[in-house]
Specification:
- The complex is a heterodimer of chains A (about 300) and B (about 375).
- Chain A has about 300 residues and is mainly alpha-helical.
- Chain A has 13 helices and no strands.
- The longest helix of chain A has about 35 residues.
- Chain B has about 375 residues and is mainly alpha-helical.
- The chains are: A mainly alpha (about 300), B mainly alpha (about 375).
């Protein structure tokens, strides 16, 4: 399976071709599984009601594309210049999502990188805890299910007047992705040889100077990877956002979820909304795939 | 106790002036006193005593921030170079303590109370009444049982992900293209997936998957009607978003395998099938275990899709623990009971994951012995 090309000495031609066909058939089949839902959503946003209910699939052949879905969001060419309440609403949620996801990822990358660097370079002792225990303390946050913290947070946030604020959500999301950032960055910093900083220290830089000027530039790709992975998780988070926000700070997933429940489903506008909500991440996934994979595989393979 | 030397050797710190050390201690004491004073003042004010206080607890948060900064500054003042090293770790530790340890302790406190957030009575301590109620709550046990089903689905996800990783690792054209395509579902939010797949493609009358099922000969496709099928539909959607993650990690593992070992097996005349089970699979065991453990951890948090598609129905057949507690809170706004359920869940998870890790360690050690 690993290297189908160089098979046993007398090459079984027929079997070889059959296995090539099987491999590509499997690839195409799974690609369809991955892409059809996205295709369906994007095309549905251009369908009118009868086209949806008749299950039409191919634009221009089955049905005539129409801006209906995008018009209801105020994002079609003919409504883009006019004032539209749904669009204001949508843009507000969109902005919340952007601010919250980037804010939390940035904060997590800063806190997590500093901690991971310290853990990879120095021996700490804090009461009975050594480096290994401290790392475990960070990573163990990962098994904490959100539901355990959700209700205490609800009560505490109410007292702290942080309910339905962006900063409150940013803090929660930072907590959620911090263990992942520490995990990735610890791996990255351990791979950088200590001799680099030792040379810098001899040249008269302080520890922080060496960290900021020498190490950070080298670790930057790893930090980008950690940032992007955090960004994906924060952008898609629903549970905390649903509990801790109501009108001001709610994010796109909350908006999408709240539309599905009430008053029957407006297929075309829901499809447009879903398309708009997933579009930024689809773009990131295509353009920055390299970094995402780097983040996901950090520490997995020794 | 012996000191473990740092990996990065730093120049020994200079003698610190005693005045500087004293200033550091003083700063820390002052900040601690401020934090305590603000906290006590607000606590007294909130408990109804006629002391001046603030409208919310927000100032206590600011006092904690000031205290955290003072703690950092005093570390540098008192310990010089060693203090600067501590500064790397301190922000993350203080953040996590404030955001996890404190809420957890607070959570334990509310878990043993009857507290309706929208009610007028406020918190009432009710001892073990919540525990007793949990014991007699069939829906909670049902949700826990469902979690076992959902966890079982991981094996299927793992098999599919492994197959896809092998496909991507084979000699194919356009590997990067396929990888990007296969990664796509991971980028989509579970809520969007709930709508795209759960509500629209699985729509019984005209959803494309329903039409496809009808074409295959299923007379009246219904994906959320019977308990078993509803659970399977939820599993499928969850698997769809998460298989890429497992696939990427397994692919990285496959790519890091030693080619020579695989070659040797081939030269020895092992068939592909034998080569896979005899060589590739055992070598992949460590990566596989990492992947499965991470997947288990994420699976235990499963909720978004269930909340948005089925709300736990039909009859609680698709409830996960998280979605059940979420609804429990939404319907009754009783934070006390919900928190207790969550705490019990946490204990079960910690015990379960620890046991799982122990089992996996054992498997690893044994297979290591055999392959040596």
């Amino acid at each position: 399976m690993i290297e189908p090309e160089d098979a046993a000495p007398p090459p079984p031609r027929l079997g070889h071709i059959a296995s090539r066909v099987a491999i590509y058939a499997a690839l195409v089949a799974w690609a369809l599984v991955c892409l059809v839902p996205i295709y369906w959503t994007v095309t549905t946003s251009f369908k009118t009601a009868p086209d949806v209910t008749r299950g039409h699939l191919v634009p221009y052949v089955d049905f005539q594309p129409d801006w209906k879905g995008w018009r209801s969001l105020g994002l079609s060419p003919d409504t883009i210049g006019e004032i539209s309440t749904p669009r204001t609403e949508f843009l507000k949620r969109f902005r919340n999502s952007v601010v919250v996801a980037t804010g939390a990822s940035l904060l997590a990358v800063i806190l997590g990188s500093l901690a991971a660097y310290g853990l990879s370079r120095f021996s700490y002792r804090f009461a009975w805890m050594r480096n290994g225990d401290i790392s475990f303390f960070f990573l163990s946050q990962l098994i904490l299910p959100p539901v355990v913290l959700a209700l205490p947070f609800l009560v505490l946030y109410k007292q702290l007047a942080l309910l339905d604020t962006r900063i409150g959500i940013i803090l929660v999301y930072t907590l959620m992705v911090l263990p992942i950032v520490v995990w990735i960055m610890r791996d990255q910093f351990s791979a950088i040889p200590v001799e680099l900083e030792e040379a810098a220290l001899v040249d008269g830089l302080s520890i922080w100077g060496a960290f900021l000027r020498i190490i950070l530039p080298i670790a930057l790709p790893g930090m980008v990877a950690a940032f992007l992975l955090s960004l994906v998780l924060c952008w898609n988070e629903y549970f905390f956002a649903a509990l801790l926000t109501s009108t001001n700070a709610n994010t796109l997933p909350v908006m999408v979820a709240s539309q599905t429940g009430s008053q029957g489903i407006n297929w075309w506008s829901m499809a447009a909304l879903a398309t708009a909500a997933i579009a930024p991440l689809v773009v990131i996934g295509v353009v920055l795939e390299r970094f995402l994979i780097k983040g996901m595989t950090a520490g997995a393979v020794k | 106790m012996t000191e473990i030397p740092d990996r990065l050797h730093t120049p020994p710190s200079d003698q610190l002036a005693p005045g500087r050390i004293r200033a550091g201690s003083l700063l820390l004491w002052a900040a601690s006193a401020l934090l305590l004073a603000v906290f006590l003042l607000q606590a007294l004010h909130a408990s109804g005593l006629a002391v001046p206080g603030f409208a919310t607890w927000r100032p206590v948060l600011y006092a904690y921030l000031v205290w955290a900064i003072a703690l950092g500054a005093s570390q540098v003042l008192r310990h010089g170079e060693r203090g600067k090293r501590t500064l790397f770790l301190l922000p993350a530790v203080l953040f996590t303590v404030a955001m996890v340890v404190f809420p957890l302790v607070f959570g334990l406190w509310i878990a043993f109370s009857d507290w309706n957030l929208s009610g007028a009575t406020g918190r009432r301590f009710n001892g073990t009444a919540n525990l007793v109620e949990m014991w007699h709550d069939p829906f909670y046990w049902n949700a826990l049982r469902n979690m076992l089903w959902y966890l079982g689905a991981i094996l299927v996800e793992y098999a599919i992900a492994f197959g896809l990783a092998l496909l991507l690792n084979a000699e194919i054209r356009g590997r990067k293209f396929w990888r990007v395509v296969f990664l796509m579902p991971l980028m989509l939010s579970p809520v969007a997936v709930s709508w795209m797949v759960g509500k629209s493609m699985l729509e019984v009358r005209f959803g494309p998957i329903a039409s496809f099922a009808r074409w295959l000969g299923w007379e009246n496709p219904s994906f959320f009607g019977s308990p078993e099928i509803a659970r399977a539909s939820i599993m499928a959607m969850d698997a769809w978003t998460f298989i890429p993650f497992m696939m990427i990690m397994l692919l990285a593992g496959l790519q890091s395998l030693d080619r020579e070992v695989l070659e040797a097996a081939r030269v020895d005349g092992a068939s592909r099938w034998q080569g896979f089970w005899g060589v590739t699979f055992p070598l992949m065991l460590p990566v596989s275990i990492t992947v499965i453990v991470i997947r288990v951890i994420f699976k235990l948090k499963l909720a978004d899709i269930i909340i948005t598609v089925t709300s736990g129905g039909p009859g609680g057949a698709t409830d996960s623990v998280t979605s059940f507690i979420y609804r429990e809170y939404r319907d009754r706004s009783n934070v006390g009971y919900g928190t207790l359920l969550a705490m019990v869940y946490l204990v079960l998870i910690v015990v379960g994951v620890t046991a799982l890790l122990a089992v996996f360690n054992r498997i690893l050690r044994r297979s290591h012995g055999i392959t040596q």
